[in-house]
Amino acid sequence: MHQQILLVSSEFPPGPGGIGRHAEDLSLALAGKGCHVDVWSSIDYVDGEAVDIYKSGLPDNITLHQFRRIGLLTYPARILKVFKAIRKIKYDLLVFTGKFSLWIGGLIKTFYGNRKTIDFFVHGSEVNPGNSFTRMITHWALDKADRIWAVSEFTRSILPERIRMKKEIHILPNGIYAKKWPTPSEVIPLKDWKGNPKLLTVGSISPRKGQHRVINALSTLMLTYPDIHYHIIGIDKNASHLRDLIKTLNLEEHITIHGRLPGIMELARAYKTADIFIMLSDNQPDGDVEGFGIAILEANLYGLPAIGAKGCGIEDAIVSGINGELVDGNNPEEIKSAVQKILEQKEYYLQRMKDWVICHEWNMIINDFLELK
Known about the structure:
The chain has helices at residues 18-32, 48-56, 74-88, 99-112, 132-144, 153-158, 161-166, 211-224, 240-248, 264-273, 294-301, 314-317, 332-344, 346-359, 362-370; strands spanning 4-9, 36-42, 62-67, 93-97, 118-122, 147-150, 168-171, 198-202, 229-233, 255-259, 276-279, 306-309, 324-327. It is of the alpha/beta class. The strands form two sheets. It has a seven-stranded parallel sheet with strand order 3-2-1-4-5-6-7, sandwiched between helices. The two termini are 13 Å apart.
């Protein structure tokens, strides 16, 4: 298979973000099937040297092009670059993921009509943004797609009803590309992390990721686990509200905000060190919602069971009794019960997590995507 594929994403490694990690894994899986993938994306929060090092490690059949920020011309320039790429190369497949990328896809479909087939991946927060104008443009773009791939049943459910009724929508769950991660047996746990047990959340610090819900439950957990410690990893530019909450509840000795870790090995070591992964994502009124929770699969890869909140895309990422437990994110007693169950039955979860990770390997799920191209 030697297809030419264009993938336009709102983010991509080595920058942070779940949409970027999904785009990377999709690209690697397609490349593994012999496709050549041209990626266009913005890459934020890292310097040029880090981008160059990352590019040098990509397979030969993935070419990463970086969108630059040039003030008011930023978005018109990105649109032009994608149109130029399409005119230059006859792509077999055009894939768009992330909010502004969907808008570009809508423009391309409007211009080319039936001459181009457009595939959209939708995750969660980009589907129904709070700003009415942004929401209108996004829904207009979704209406232009030939196929829409939702990363969870939850994400499909929040698409506008008229889109669900008239469009070809498929569920392709988030996966994990295990080959890019260090082999679990080779990863050495961190020795300086506090806590027994150690809870871990990975994700940008925000109300959607639900770190505040874990903090609110911590006092209840401490009644049973006085030495418990909550470790938070992720971009911390919006962490002031968490620090205020931690101070108000006098939990400074039980919580560490590590910020963003520098590389994939450091993240693997964090997963290997913790006792339970916890993501109590909280749907926000402005449309910021959790579409899946890709970090849950990463944690599972390193033998780490997960506790996740009901009512969002995490319900597709966790099956209670298999790779973790689903809870009401606002119910500390329910959260405590899940912690107790996992700590008492760690080996039980470990055996079942292996099968869960295998069935979410990108080498497997990419076939569902390619068969419907």
